[in-house]
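User: Design a sequence. Structure:
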């Protein structure tokens, strides 16, 4: 009598999910050496950019004074800017060279920052950081463009409209300080979606929270616009406020994308269909 034996059915074995690459591990001393290397490279890039900026600065002065000259022409005033001390224009050229050097070297500086932080990040964090660096530069440049073409002409038109019994004698240095404040303020305002991205990434806010409290956010935006606007007229404040409101709701969309991607990643790790994770 023979006993029939059969091999048991093969158990379905799920292939192990490979752990996500956590990036490289470095000692504290190695971090310091790496940081020193990145800082030195960034400073060299800024120095080279400032050298190039020195040759570009006179042309940049002609470009940045156009809104002021137009505002003077609209008020039928002499189209002229002055400097009030012997080193005034030289100081302006040096300052412009440094600022232009920072702008020209910003891709290198951001790349050095990326090289410093990338080894310690997970794969999905690296892609998020890359998007952060790219969007930060694009939004900041868009803000500068908005400040130059929209905010600055309205600010200057309002300020020059006050003539009285005197005529303006405008210093190029003081005008540059005003222009820098307006352009940098506009650039920072346009970083609102990036701020919301990080607040969502760290779990501080959610799309629902942002949408439900949008009326309070608009009130805060109105207060911020009133503070950062260098003139007291309502029109300029509305010009500043309008893109901030649009950027806030764009930030809600960014927040929704972050939450959706996080839910899909958690669902995939738990083996749950993405539709059930919501």
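Assistant: Done.
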């Amino acid at each position: 009598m023979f006993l029939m034996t059969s091999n048991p059915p093969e158990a379905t074995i799920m292939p192990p999910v490979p752990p996500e690459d956590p990036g490289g591990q470095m000692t504290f001393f190695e971090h310091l050496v790496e940081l020193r290397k990145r800082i030195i490279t960034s400073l060299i890039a800024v120095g080279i950019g400032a050298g190039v900026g020195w040759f570009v600065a006179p042309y940049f002065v002609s470009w940045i004074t156009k809104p002021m000259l137009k505002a003077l022409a609209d008020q039928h005033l002499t189209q002229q800017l002055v400097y009030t001390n012997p080193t005034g224009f030289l100081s302006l050229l040096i300052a412009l060279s440094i600022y232009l050097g920072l702008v020209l070297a910003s891709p290198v500086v951001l790349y050095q920052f990326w090289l410093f932080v990338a080894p310690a990040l997970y794969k999905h964090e690296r892609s998020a950081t890359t998007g952060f660096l790219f969007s930060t530069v694009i939004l900041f440049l868009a803000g500068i463009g908005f400040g130059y073409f929209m905010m600055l002409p309205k600010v200057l038109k309002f300020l020059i409209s006050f003539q009285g019994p005197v005529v303006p004698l405008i210093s190029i240095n003081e005008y540059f300080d005003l222009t820098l404040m307006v352009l940098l303020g506009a650039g920072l305002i346009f970083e609102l979606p990036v701020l919301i991205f990080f607040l969502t990434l760290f779990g501080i806010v959610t799309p629902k929270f942002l949408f439900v409290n949008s009326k309070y956010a608009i009130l805060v935006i109105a207060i911020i616009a009133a503070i950062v606007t260098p003139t007291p007229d309502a029109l300029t404040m509305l010009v500043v406020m309008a893109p901030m409101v649009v950027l806030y709701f764009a930030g809600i969309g960014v927040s929704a994308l972050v939450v959706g991607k996080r839910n899909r990643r958690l669902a995939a790790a738990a083996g749950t269909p993405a539709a059930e994770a919501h």
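Residues 123-160 form the longest helix (38 residues). The chain is about 75% helix and 0% strand.
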